[in-house]
Write a sequence for this structure.
């Protein structure tokens, strides 16, 4: 057996790059995974599952699944995309940037809509950043400098398990030699989560009242009077948190879907950014979204380079339009405005409202996915592919927008294409059908 080091975990946006993976001498089997958290380890071991799908499966009219060849899968996908007036090409967050860019090329040729998982996650953050800008930093700066950490509407103890040990709370950095002993941790969450239980100060906010509490913190930071309670939090606690943040040398506010998808949505992030800006009058402060899928940040980046917008890009008129609420996947599905669905690198079947999932089930649809998922169960074609970050390398962006080259540690099953290879073949066929050189 041999050990491969500096392996990057392709699970969450923390993109830990210090994993070690023990593989068999023939390079085909993963024996052990070191340093990863339990979900990261599972991602590697899951690729070894004995019941893994290795051939494309297609559903017939009666709902029976039949094996088809890769050529047939390419043909079905290309024909579906070319015949549709406005296909939705959704997902992209669990694949590499190379595959994303190839998929966008197809979308441009067929006049599709490209949307990623930010649409139900941090899309509101992206809107706010476009509105007001963002004072941010890298996770390396957090580790080396930050002594006041806020987790607002997120639960890294479960969703990003090594975030606190690698970057935000426990590590000893260059200017943070005492590790967690010199850091103050504030958690804002209506629930008493495992992250909240570790906090120095937990503000157990009333659900959906983030905007008010963020406003109150801005007032408290300026030393202006507050009502007795705001969003269920006593005035003294708010003042205490404001003083704690102001007295730090470097404040970082991390936030998650508890605040991006609760009442006020992007306006919550607008004001959280304004709070960060205010704090910079007293100390150094930055803010960062806790991105979920390991390369959802990359999807926004690649869409940004190619079309100028980070999600829900509508190419159906021959040029890029971006209109969240209109060109976003669930709005398009609900209004019946798309006539085919292509999914790669995500699982809308598990995360979209049931009304949207039913729409997907009624349409011609393809899911490119190494696992069996609720989405593969409703799509007409399930195309299995290699696991990016395990059986295929490529570029991914960490939650702080730092690009990291993922590593291939084992060979995929024989004949298994990567996302990029499959998309390349579909692109070639789409070009033939469209008569494009
Ligand atoms: Fe992987 Fe995230 Fe766990 Fe790091 S914290 S090992 S990136 S799942």
């Amino acid at each position: 057996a041999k050990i491969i080091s500096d392996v990057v975990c392709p699970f969450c946006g923390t993109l830990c790059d210090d994993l070690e993976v023990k593989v068999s001498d023939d390079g085909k089997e993963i024996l052990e995974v070191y340093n990863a958290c339990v979900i990261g380890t599972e991602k590697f071991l899951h690729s070894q599952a004995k019941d893994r799908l290795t051939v494309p499966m297609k559903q017939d009219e009666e709902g029976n699944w039949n094996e088809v060849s890769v050529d047939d899968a390419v043909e079905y996908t290309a024909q579906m995309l070319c015949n549709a007036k406005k296909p939705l090409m959704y997902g992209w967050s669990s694949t590499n940037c190379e595959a994303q860019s190839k998929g966008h090329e197809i979308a441009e040729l067929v006049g599709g809509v490209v949307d990623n998982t930010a649409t139900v996650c941090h899309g509101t953050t992206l809107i706010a950043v476009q509105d007001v800008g963002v004072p941010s930093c890298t996770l390396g700066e957090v580790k080396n400098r930050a002594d006041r950490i806020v987790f607002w509407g997120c639960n890294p103890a479960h969703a990003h398990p090594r975030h606190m040990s690698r970057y935000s709370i426990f590590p000893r950095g260059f200017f943070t030699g005492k590790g967690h002993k010199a850091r103050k941790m504030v958690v804002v969450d209506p629930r008493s989560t495992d992250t909240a239980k570790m906090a120095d100060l937990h503000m157990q906010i009333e659900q959906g009242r983030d905007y008010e509490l963020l406003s109150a913190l801005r007032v408290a930071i300026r030393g202006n009077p507050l009502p007795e309670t705001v969003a269920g939090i006593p005035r003294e606690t708010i003042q205490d948190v404001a003083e704690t943040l102001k007295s730090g040398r470097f404040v970082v506010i991390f936030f998650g879907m508890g605040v991006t998808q609760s009442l006020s949505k992007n306006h919550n992030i607008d004001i959280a950014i304004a709070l960060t800006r205010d704090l910079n009058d007293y100390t150094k402060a930055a803010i960062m979204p806790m991105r979920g899928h390991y390369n959802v940040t990359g999807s926004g980046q690649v869409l940004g380079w190619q079309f100028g917008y980070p999600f829900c890009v509508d190419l159906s008129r021959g040029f890029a339009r971006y209109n969240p609420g209109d060109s976003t996947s669930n709005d398009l599905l609900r209004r019946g405005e798309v006539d085919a669905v292509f999914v790669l690198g995500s699982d809308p079947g598990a995360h979209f409202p049931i009304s949207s999932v039913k729409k997907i089930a009624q349409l011609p649809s393809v899911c490119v996915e190494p696992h069996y998922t609720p989405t593969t169960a409703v799509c007409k074609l399930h195309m299995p592919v290699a696991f990016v970050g395990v059986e295929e390398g490529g570029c991914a962006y960490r939650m702080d927008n730092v690009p990291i080259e993922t590593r291939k540690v084992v060979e995929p099953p024989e004949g298994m294409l990567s996302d990029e290879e499959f998309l390349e073949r579909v692109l070639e066929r789409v070009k033939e059908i469209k008569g494009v050189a």
Summary: The two ends are 47 Å apart (CA to CA). Residues 57-120+294-434 form a domain with the Rossmann fold fold (CATH 3.40.50.740).
